[in-house]
């Protein structure tokens, strides 16, 4: 490797470090916006080009990744967003929960519920709890049809568990 190659390599590394720093700063800004008003955080990421609305599946996967992997997000804000009765929120929650893998026999009902709830705080509104627990029941019964084959039964148990909290 000659001096030119070494210099080019250093320049490339410096550019990458700068890109990484800018990305982190923009994720912090997106998190701040999301924590104040969730849809503004999603809009910011879309406007900056980090999320593209088409294809829809990639858009939803990107939102889910942002929600799961951004440590500065408020669990309450995540719960408010996922619990809203709006198309984007419903679709985002469906994607969010579909990414869990509860097929292993070691994952029981309580474990699955804890996994799901570890990333957000459910607002106390009964309709939101209902929607979230209904989807939880569907997903757990789909992943473990032998043990939890009745989605409605899982839903009732999960809903009752949440009401006792």
From TrEMBL:
* PANTHER family, per database record: GUANYL-NUCLEOTIDE EXCHANGE FACTOR, LD29171P
Kindly provide the name given to this protein in its UniProt entry.
SEC7 domain-containing protein
| Classification of source organism | Eukaryota, Sar, Alveolata, Ciliophora, Intramacronucleata
Query: GO BP, one example?
Result: regulation of ARF protein signal transduction
Q: Which Pfam families has this protein been placed in?
A: Sec7
Q: Which GO terms describe its molecular function?
A: guanyl-nucleotide exchange factor activity
Q: Which residues form the SEC7 domain?
A: 16-165
Q: Which InterPro entries match?
A: Sec7_C_sf, Sec7_dom, Sec7_dom_sf
Show which residues constitute the signal peptide. Answer: none
